[in-house]
Amino acid sequence: MRSNRWHHTHKEPTRHTAIKTMNPVQDMIKTPITIGGKEIPNRLFLAPLAGLGHVAMRQIIDEFGSCGLFFSEMCSAKALPFENRAISPMFRWRDEEAERLVMQIVGATPLEMARAAERIEKEGLFGVDINFGCSVASICKKEGGAAVLKDPDRAEAIVREVRRATTLPLFVKYRTGWKDDAGFAAMMGQRFESAGADALVFHPRISPDRRSRPPKWAHIKAVKESVALPVFGNGNVFNTADLTRMVTTTGCDGVSLGRIAIARPFVFAEMLEEKTFGPELYPQIALRFLDLVEAAFAPSYAVRLYKKFLLYFAANFKFGHPVFKQLAHATTLEALRDNVHQTFSQPLDLAATPNLNLFTK
Fold it and tell me: Where are the beta strands (DSSP E) in the chain?
């Protein structure tokens, strides 16, 4: 059952705010969508995020509500058929989220990806997401992630084999490619559609470009216009105005939120329910998330995951770099908890927009 833990911490919009002009984009995002025969309550999703979209992060986001669909962090397709859910750091979920969780898999061959998809379906999860977006060297050296886009035939074969292996909704998350070519991205979208994908999650950056340059939203439009499938845009949507601009300029069917969902787990409720959240909430988030990673993972791993979260969380503040250093300077969970109390002993100034220097890490 969804927690009401945060209900008392948000500020309801004033009457003046509540009667402002209707936003047709927001109305569209609130409209349910059916993908692969399954209905999703809204079109604002958690993006698949390696090392960040784990069970503890999904729980705190879920406690605030309004996330239409959850995507897991990246799971190795080769290892997944043999994973033990009780101890696996990545192939893990809460029972109450299973019917809303898409499991993200990465691998190099059609067979290993298909076997992973079969295991996901046996577990009763919502769907499968094929990762053709990760550009981390360790993944690309194994011919997985974005490296697959160098071989369009292999990419299409993977999607086709996974489609044969599962009846679940099938998503493909991918980038523009290894060159700045919207035509290539559109062509790959068509190939994924013909191979049996049910929806595309498209991140319009070239694979070598981690996050140092802005994504080219025009490429999302090119992909959307080339296929009949639902296309979800991803990249630099940090507030409601960004959400409106992306949908308006690209025609995408929905939006997948990544880094901002880590920094502000309440962002789905903020964008869809027009709730506002004050600065007093931030220390509560820091402490609550610490409790969740402590409950879910071994202490040393929990410390690593918490520090990864802190980098994005600190981007909320005007002086984000020193805030991050103060929060993260610890080697134990208890010391991290002390840091939160000490750091927030005085109010911190919030930044109008996230500190992108921290967001590029």
Answer: 10-11, 33-35, 38-40, 44-46, 70-76, 101-106, 127-132, 170-177, 199-206, 231-234, 254-257, 276-277
